[in-house]
UniProtKB/TrEMBL annotation, chains A, B:
Transmembrane region(s): 287-307, 319-340, 361-381, 387-413, 425-443
Name this protein carries in UniProt: Magnesium transporter MgtE
Domain of life of the source: Bacteria
Record domain CBS: where: 141-204, 205-261
Oligomer status and interactors: Homodimer.
Main location: membrane
Species of origin: Flagellimonas lutaonensis
Single Gene Ontology MF annotation: magnesium ion transmembrane transporter activity
Gene Ontology CC annotations of this record: plasma membrane
Record-linked SMART domains: CBS, MgtE_N
């Protein structure tokens, strides 16, 4: 397949069809597109045009379109729909997607929307899901699943399953519960089909089943499903009752968001922004880190001011401050990034002490190689061997300290249950800039004997 | 479930059991663990111990363990197995995992291993898969799938499907092909079960099915599956014949690897390394970027050397060079990161020109706020208004230029089909350092009239 590409021409054509009120052509055109593509189109339309499009298509299609749309566009479009219209959309959605949308609605209309949902079981499930923290397994799960009681016979079971499966788009597993609703295990479709109809489920089910607690963090659920290659995982409450299930497609989104967030943190962007957000939103995400950088720079300037008396004899020292600061920053970001990634992927073994020793050796090796290059260059350029030695030696020390700081801070934050990703990027760069320049002038002063 | 945690005590216990040759206890212990957990254990054992463990368990378990193990440990363990033993492991694996392992084997033994595989169909599928580039849909796909001919009746179909399904762990879809093997569409299980046994498949199949070409890049396949919430996607060759299918669990790994790679690039780590790799491997990944930083620093030093005559009257200008360099670097990384992420997620709309205008406004806004702060501080600190104005004004210009460079370079690389992620991190920082300091001294000279 050639992936769908929203061209300017196509967008213009659609806008024109909306303006012309050409419902027939629009309907047949949209039928050709996947709902994710229709959502992409809707994101680029005005709120009025997008609302027109949503009202035009039947709720079976548009409900899926809504879940794929940008949050701000969706909110604006829902604002233009009546409680009954919104309820019709929710009716078509899986409970997890429906709960997400209800969670975004203005409080005043939630009750009215819920009361308009005809399928009362569905409404009850959605309300149940609203109770869970968005940032937990409960906030991710859906109520659609197939569960059977261990005391049923295969015959009961098949009948019940047929009823339940109607609401479930993709059956990943059949879960087995006891009379209290506690998750006991799972059932393979094959065993179910080959067993005699009078067999009890308790005699044929597989007691081994992975599950997560409703309060588990999404990142943890993602790690478990990824490690064990699961396509769905059941969710249990505090006393082990089966309350929902999470599917891999929701987890893919979690993994992507986590990675994007860590990447943005490392780049000094503190909020979840996209290139197409407003200048104001982008400023709010970027400015705080820049102010931190500014303060760091002022600190560095103040330190250099303290060594002002050296400037007449050793101006060259001041020429190398950007180099020292840059190297301290680069090494710090490298070492912290490796630790942050190791922590995120759960593959750091051994003690903090061992890590620091290793990073010290690594930084020492890199530092020495770089120092030799720097020594040769400075010596040739300026011809003052002593100054060249002072600068190069400082570089080694600065790199080692920067590496240790970059390794220690994320490990320390992680121990204190703070997201270590915050330690990468501007934070580590700025503190290493200051440390680096302080060490540099201090060592230079010592060696040059001023 | 509480996720499995490999403690030092558990590892010691297992090592002891291996030393004691206590096969019975080891076997019953490993039976309790998931294969991904056994792989985690094997990664921490010596090669001899890991080999012992692999030989001890039956190939049904160990084949899965092998696929989950670290590549270097797996290679070492396979080295200790005979061609026949390796073939037994391959026999149990899906074709995609088997082909990955065969791809890692030393060339001399590949043929022998393949010839030891008893299931000749399986062997043929593995050999077929070896032909595809690892970095393509063909390199990711497996041969296990359920396909039916459009000319079959429902009755033929059910019989054929039963045979095929034996080899397929999870049936995601039933694909429909014509006599030449070209992918025509898919079949819903429900339609198949409700249709009369004499109906032809061509009359009931759904002609709409997403597919990807064997040569498609894994990142593109990931984007498509993620956008359309697919759990599996069929792969077709150049003339549209169905040759395999890719499942979402493989795609999860692709997404994770892509994100990790971009993150490492931004942090100035050029190869796929982990915290537990050797100092030598880590040096090879980190040193090149540090040398780049060193060159940048030398460039900055040379520029400052060229403005040496200013040092007697305006030493303060030199104190602010780390600040200017840091701000240029930070802004550059921020703007490039947003572009790189937007490109990776395919959500950049509009022309390069528009992007640059937007970034200019954004940088101008941030720059002005920061410049006012800097102006106040410098004025109060040093009391020289003219110098303070020169420094602050330079800061605004430097930030705007850094933002434009950070926006332009990744867009430019992307147009030239070079991975834009390379433009984040040390590359952008270093070039912005040099630009920044040059602009800074040039403007200062202009304003202070030296």
């Amino acid at each position: 397949m050639t992936p769908f590409k929203l061209t300017d021409e196509l967008l213009e054509q659609i806008k024109q069809l909306i303006a012309d009120n050409d419902t027939q052509e629009l309907r047949s055109m949209m039928q050709e597109f996947h709902y994710a593509d229709v959502a992409e189109i809707a994101n680029e339309l005005s709120v009025e045009e997008a609302t027109y499009l949503i009202k035009l298509l039947d709720s079976e299609t548009t409900s899926d379109v809504l879940t794929e749309m940008d949050e701000d566009v969706r909110e604006a479009v829902l604002n233009n729909l009546s409680a009954k219209e919104i309820a019709e959309e929710l009716e078509e959605l899986d409970t997890d997607d429906a709960a997400d949308i209800v969670g975004e609605l203005p409080k005043e209309i939630v009750q009215e929307v819920i009361s308009e949902i005809e399928d009362r079981e569905h409404a009850k499930d959605i309300v149940d899901l609203l109770r869970y923290d968005e940032n937990s397994a409960g906030g991710l799960m859906a109520k659609e699943l197939v569960k059977v009681n261990e005391n049923w016979t295969v015959l009961n079971c098949v009948g019940e399953m047929r009823k339940q499966a109607e609401n479930v788009t993709r059956v990943h597993s059949i879960y087995v519960v006891d009379d209290e609703g506690k998750l006991k295990g799972r059932l393979s479709l094959k065993d179910l089909l080959t067993a005699s109809t009078k067999t009890h489920i308790r005699d044929i089910y597989i007691p081994k089943v992975d599950s997560v607690n409703v309060n588990e963090k999404p990142e943890e659920v993602a790690k478990i499903m990824q490690k064990y290659d699961l396509e769905a995982i059941p969710v249990v409450d505090e006393i082990g009752r089966l309350v929902g299930r999470i599917t891999i497609d929701d987890i893919v989104d979690v993994i992507k968001e986590e990675a994007d967030k860590d990447y943005q943190m490392a780049a000094g962007i503190s909020q979840d922004v996209e290139a197409d957000d407003s200048i104001w939103e982008l400023t709010r995400a970027r400015l705080p880190w820049l102010i931190l950088g500014l303060l760091g720079g002022l600190g560095a300037a103040a330190i250099m001011g303290g060594f002002e008396e050296m400037i007449s004899q050793h101006a060259i020292l001041f020429f190398f401050t950007p180099l020292i600061a840059a190297m301290a920053g680069n090494v710090g970001v490298q070492s912290s990034a490796i630790i942050v990634q190791g922590l995120a992927n759960d593959d750091l073994k051994g003690s903090i002490g061992n890590r620091l020793v290793k990073e010290m050796l690594l930084a020492l090796l890199n530092g020495l190689i770089l120092a030799v290059l720097l020594l040769l260059f400075t010596w040739v350029w300026k011809g003052t061997f002593n100054t060249a030695v002072a600068i190069s030696l400082s570089l080694v020390v600065v790199i080692v300290v920067a590496g240790l700081v970059g390794t220690f801070i994320p490990l320390f934050l992680h121990k204190r249950n703070i997201d270590p990703a915050i330690a990468t990027g501007p934070f580590i760069t700025t503190s290493n800039d200051i440390f680096g320049i302080l060490i540099y002038f201090w060592i230079a002063k010592l060696i040059l004997g001023i």
